[in-house]
Design brief:
Blueprint: E1 6-10, E2 13-17, E3 20-23, E4 26-30, E5 34-35, E6 40-41, E7 43-44, E8 50-51, E9 58-66, E10 72-74, E11 77-81, E12 84-91, E13 94-100, E14 106-110, E15 119-123
Antiparallel strand pairs: 1-2, 1-9, 3-4, 5-6, 7-8, 9-10, 11-12, 11-15, 12-13, 13-14
Amino acid sequence: MREIKFRAWCDDKMYKVDTLGFDEGGIRESMSFAHKERNEFIIEAEDGTRCIMFRNAIFMQYTGLKDKNGVEIYESDYIKWQDKTGFIFYDKAEFRVRYDGQNNQKFEYYLSGITNDLEVTGNIYENKQ
């Protein structure tokens, strides 16, 4: 079974998400504590910085795969394989890779079908390509 993990982009910084709580309306809390009385939630990074405006956070799910260097692959990551560079997205219960080919053609592959020799080169939030 795949490990379920998330990270979050908030206030121009990437954060590791330790826990998420859900209710009928969706995500209700994140990390180890929240200021529920103000409807604010806190995401804390490894270096101690915090993102307080939870509703601005963009969550990305771990694919359960690692690249050739042991780096975890998440949604919105850029990856390189063979001579192609693409990005990871989640669609119809499957992680996929999209890349641009010649003549503005767009190609998509199931991530599970191209797991050999992948390398994470960044993500769409920190490394705009």
